[in-house]
Fold:
Amino acid sequence: MELHQKPYQFIEHTASLCAVCHRRVDAKIVQSGKGIFLLKFCPEHGEQQEILEHDAAYFLGRMRYTKPGTTSKLQTKRKLGCPFDCGLCPEHEQHTCIGVIEVTSACDLRCPVCYASSGSGAPLPLETVERMLDFFVDSEFGHAEILQISGGEPTTHPEILDIIRLARQKPIKYVMLNTNGLRIATDEAFVKTLSEFVGGFEIYLQFDGFDDAIYRHLRGKALAEIKQQAARNLTRHKIPVTLVSTIQRGVNDHEIGKIVEFGIRTDGIRGINFQPVALFGRTREFDASNRLTVTGIIEAIEQQMNGMIRKEDFLPLPCNVDRVSITYLHKSRGAFVPLTRSLDVGNCLPAIRNTFSFDPEEFLKELTERASGSGQACCDYLGALKDFSKFIPKSFFLKSRHEKIEYVSANTFRISITSFVDARNFDMKSMKKECVHIITPELKKIPFSAYNMLYREAT
Ligand code: SF4
Ligand code: SF4
Structure:
């Protein structure tokens, strides 16, 4: 449907990029029917239109949840304007919640949808990685939230265990190893060694479904059994896992519910992150006009989970309401139930820090402080405090830090959806709020989407 000439409801202006030449162009966000679209015009390449969200009601209500960004140290100056000044430049509106260090560009797969076009390449020396870690921590004023050790395939790095050891010594709350799972499935001694890092350490396991046809399409190989074996090995060694699923319409969107069910019933799997495929790197064969969005995936979860998880259980993540949606399930009498059924998160937003990693202890402390003030807001906090306290047994507070992390991991299940921005769905506002940043060897922090769109070759 061509919208430029048709009636629609205007929502707001923004800036975007021409999908062909990547020059910055004016754009508007509009509603048509149930969908939200981005309309833009490039003097050279003409009118362009892209779906932003499938559920206008969610999109229009998301601002209730937004919070001001958190600051981080800056590395560049304002010169050409977003997204050409990364980074971080003074225009960026969010700190680095997740710092990604790509320790090698080598990989034992050649995925047709690899955003990094990984394959061959040299591993980074340990000293370089340490310099990047120190830079990441310093840029977050001495305490970083989440590190993802990535690649290429990081488990092919000859010093990967030393890298993880090094990262665990730094003031970083969580360390994640992003892996395709090939080595995890076949090298049990390696998995056993990884289990020594448990407690603020987890595996971010690429997992796209249960059918070899899916893997042939997305990963270039039949990998269904390898992925199952990787999950089994990690479970056996009690290593927490978050599954990360790249979802492409017509390829594996029909397995979204099955992936959630698998995650929930498999001990040790603590969450899933769904990512609609984006036009980066090697991704070519992809009809972006029919792309999945955050709300497209939420709808699929609701339909495929028979109401066990509903649309209303998903909330925009306050630090980037445009691009990330999340729900937490809590274990109650052996079953997982969305936390939103008992807690009005909207009432306690200021008490939630700008981070992906939820810490109930910090949250309770914040709520208690805010509830002891005066006025209507305090009543809301008091109500939230009562509701939330029901989920936390008294014995929780007597546990060690390591045991607390374990308790939270074992009793909660997180489903998040992250939609990265490519040149077609580029909305400058959401770009500026992106909190997943690539830490480069040149000691810059470049938002993940901008890096894959514009910087990967140049840095
Ligand atoms: S994406 Fe962020 S860091 Fe990069 S140019 Fe835009 S505002 Fe600056
Ligand atoms: S997506 Fe991951 S596993 Fe696939 S080629 Fe790229 S780095 Fe390797």
